[in-house]
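Here is a typical protein record:
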Amino acid sequence: MQFQDAKGERTGPQIDLPTDSTPAQLELLINELRKATSPPEEHQGKVPYSCYVNEVEVLESLRETLEGQGISSGEVIITISYQPLAVFRVRPVVRCTDTMPGHTEAVIHVSFSPDGRRLASGGGDTTVRFWDTGTCLPKHTCQGHRHHVLCTAWSPDGSRFASADKAGEIRLWDPAMGLAVGQPLKGHKQYVTSLAWEPLHLNEGKGERMASSSKDGTVRVWNVRTGACLTTLAQHTNSVECCKWGGEGLLYTASRDRTIKVWALNGKENGGGFGKLIKTLVGHGHRVNTLALSTDYVMRTGPFDHTGKLAHEATTPMEAAQAKYTAFLEGSGGRERLVSGSDDFTLFLWDPLAEEGGKKPVARMTGHQQAVNHISFSPDGRYVASASFDKKVKTWDGKTGRFLSTLVGHVGAVYMVTWSPDSRLLVSASKDSTLKLWDVAKGAKAKETLPGHFDEVYALDWAPNGASVASGSKDRTIKIWRA
């Protein structure tokens, strides 16, 4: 065997290994090899790792992984690549500790701030509400929207919060004060379907640009400081269902016209390639509902680590965000990956930054029997979870798109999934009014069923500090779940 890290650099010499070696034994060996070959100042103590042979993770034993690929042991050199896992562990959420009333209509969105210390919600009663996660008491109720609040998004540094409604109007809020910031952003002719802030490590750390997609078939990019629309992207021929701003300055948009378009937003606004269509990804047979990036979590948490403090002892938030993003890519294979989910019951895994063009999917992921309505990469990029109207959650390998497991237990459509910050646990929200907690490594049976809501559960989020899960329901309440 020859070990190598995610960047392809060899770790230690070639060594003979018994084929019944387990993941725990491989992890121990990697730590010893790194300790022997790296300078003392780089030693981090024991670090957990996942190991791969030809991008297939070693889950039970080396023998099982080799036999599954038709590789016979013997006088051959097999490369084992590895990537670091979270050094902390999140405790499973098992009980509802708080029920937070206040909304007078269905709660459609709940989301924690990047540092995990505040919670925001929006819904059918046209209000945006901010909550203190320590006391679970309301902090601010923000009024101004005249229609249902359909989508929301925190800025990566947590200083601003955006919400958009059924009339196509976007509003910005100061979460600390609960006050509106600037004038509403107007331009969309129909309702806004998603919001995406520019990652903090781009645009010199200003974090002042945001993209919005709409049922009117356009995507608009805004300067939220001035309120100006910087560009309108109008090449889709039907409603744009989702937009994601990637870590390399590309914008990904998914539409009912069955395509995904990739736009360059890393140029200057005045010409310079800003808003240029790079490529169109074709393959789905029905409308594309949802997108997920392998870098979603690291960009969502901006400069903060899992404790809510600035990461990597950086001096500025931008430096912390850049260091986190760089470290994530180095540990997960070097490139951002994209997954799309569709009404055609399938998912596609894309490598849009591939040197050879990236227009063909890496994998077509089949198995769902109804529309796929939400997908999410695990924070470390190893796994993808998909939620479907077929009442099932499925997990997939985040690098190859290989099917891993079907999580069965819900008796109604599954609306949403959220990962724990350590990528070991998953919570799903369903039309059946329950949440279910899954241990991804332990297979298809739910670890816990979390009842308590009296109606469909639409909204779900796991705090970036791992302390709690928030759920929002058609029953007009928000519930907080803890260990």
In short: The mean pLDDT is 92. Residues 2-84 form a domain with the Ubiquitin-like (UB roll) fold (CATH 3.10.20). The longest strand covers residues 276-282.
